[in-house]
Amino acid sequence: MSGHNESILREPLITGDNITYAKITDDILGPVENKPNKAWWIGFTFASLGALLWVVAVSYTFWNGIGAWGLNKTVGWAWDITGFVWWVGIGHAGTLISAVLLLFRQNWRNSINRSAEAMTIFAVICAATYVVSHMGRPWLAYWVLPLPNQFGSLWVNFNSPLVWDMFAISTYFSVSLLFWYTGLLPDIATIRDRAVGTRRKIYSIFSFGWNGSVKTWQRFEAVSLILAGISTPLVLSVHTIVSMDFATSVIPGWHTTIFPPYFVAGAIFSGFAMVLTLLLVARKVLGLENYITMFHIESMNKIIILTGSIVGVAYLTEFFIAWYSGSEYEQYAFINRSTGPYWWAYWMMMTCNVISPQLLWFKKIRLSIRATWILSIVVNVGMWFERFVIIVTSLHRDYIPSSWAMFYPTWVDVSVFVGSIGLFFTLFLLFLRVLPSIAIAEVKLLLKSASEQAKMKQIKEGHENKEYVAEYIESLEKFDSVKQEDYAKI
Amino acid sequence: MSDIKYILGSFGDPDEMMHGIEKLQENNISIHDVYTPMPIHGIEAKLGVKRSRIDIAAFCFGITGTCAAFALIYFCAVIDWRVNIGGKPSFALPDFIPIMFELTVLFCAFGMVLTYYASTHLFPGRAPRVMDLRATDDRFVIAVDAKENAEHTVIDQLLKNAGALEVKYNERKYISYE
């Protein structure tokens, strides 16, 4: 690290002057070490009310069975699987940020990976509860495990994507948790060493006795890199297998080979949107503008344009292939999607997922926090409709017209979904209170190379190319956390 | 002076700390360990710490997972209870691949991380072996064994000249957490 400066052309990842190692710790641990503010309490009240609704709705489903939902003999999967796929998809961005961007050495991930990974874990919890509650007899949930025949059923069918999915989701959840927690150890140790009394004792238990010695760090880095290496194909496999739950069936509109890449792109798309929804608020409320900068927001917006466009191309390809296949069932499924009784859901999906992310090509929109926040919610609304369209419109008009039906959700359907959002936000808000929302150690790594003050020093030393410096200063204009007047005189 | 167990040089900057390590090594003073709030790249080479072999462990665990998954599926679907699904073969290898992959990742991740915890002595509730409380915050600490290196004034001078903000003489190896 010594004697090596990062190129001046790269935008800073930490802004503000007088940032020291101690200040990074203080800034990030502020919400953990102090009493929560009003905004947190308001958010927490609403979120926990939502979580309560979820407990009621899920208990009601367990007690009465899935007859409490609006399912009928034609539409046997609706809001439950829509919610499941939606949550799993949202979870994917966390792993993408923590694993794929680590492999590509994208240093901007360092300040967003922790909260994104937390989001992954909470989203997968929400998804997993859908899986359990849609089983009908959740007390027999262990039947999805390969258990000997004496348990009442045969061995599970290993040719079934639903069994693959059980392995994929449980591996994904447990490996993500492991990755997240191992990364948290040094930061928990930081809290421990600053705390006193009972707090110190509690954090001491959870810090596993971390001391930051040379060997500990060396192995830590090796472990992180390998975990990133195996999590990358893992995250792709999870949504691939989720898509195979549909693609290996013979239902028109589901039986397509395009599903795996299309679902994975959609997952990353919705996941990044959710990261933005959470972080744009968190950075403001927790005062983390110097660490989660406009550069981070713009980078995430660029990923949203890319994945949103992939999703758009997939929608069009699907439509084209339905026509080109010559199969009348396939053709009808798509005509029915776009012009049938669920046309509004289809066009909602098209507008939210294909048209709205294209607005991010405009720099002004991409750099506006308000516009980005609204678009991030629009994207997730669109992605919910995508799953709803795929699932319900393919099922509601099956091969026998006499059994055609519509799906109407009951209050239980709605409450389970709204409640799961409450559960997610409750967990996320609790996370912000008890654990550092930014990986402290990883951000400290950037201080001497990629911070605004380090670059300022480089400029002042005067060895940098004038053109490059001018370009760098121009790139700072978008930052809301940079004092522009400091650069006026240079 | 005889009660002193460890001499700690506490630096505010990683580059100065690296300089301090060089200075101590030039004077043949052995370094017990270095505690830092973040990973320091290149420090292993300087201190002669061997590269971690955890990747070998990870590979072994991963391949165990692959074999375990194959063995499980083969036993269930081919040996123990064949199910006739439209006359298709029971030994359908392509269908086995997703679970074989998932269990490879699962075994690799858990095996490797548990190996890491075991080899680094990390487990819930372990009393932290900490020499300086600020080593997890904003200080980069070089620890020198005071019994092995007798010339304490020389060490003190070397550390201060290299830029140490503080030199501590600890009479106990670790700060008590009781």
UniProtKB/TrEMBL annotation, chain A:
Primary location recorded for the protein, binned into one broad class: membrane
Compartments where located: Cell membrane
Keyword Membrane: yes
Membrane topology: Multi-pass membrane protein
InterPro entries for this protein: NrfD-like (IPR005614)
GO CC annotation terms, alphabetical: plasma membrane
Entry keyword set: Cell membrane, Membrane, Transmembrane, Transmembrane helix
UniProt keyword Transmembrane, yes or no: yes
A Pfam match: NrfD
Segments passing through the bilayer: 39-63, 83-104, 116-142, 162-184, 222-242, 262-282, 303-324, 344-362, 374-396, 416-435
Homology family: Belongs to the NrfD family.
The protein's name: Hydrogenase
Species of origin: Pedobacter yonginense
Automatic annotation (TrEMBL), chain B:
Annotated TM spans: 56-79, 99-119
Protein origin, superkingdom: Bacteria
Family annotation (InterPro entries): ActD
Record keywords: Membrane, Transmembrane, Transmembrane helix
Keyword RNA-binding: no
Pfam family, one: ActD
PANTHER family xrefs: LIPOPROTEIN-RELATED, QUINOL:CYTOCHROME C OXIDOREDUCTASE MEMBRANE PROTEIN
Protein name listed in UniProt: DUF3341 domain-containing protein
Organism, scientific name: Pedobacter yonginense
Taxonomic lineage of the native organism: Bacteria, Pseudomonadati, Bacteroidota, Sphingobacteriia, Sphingobacteriales
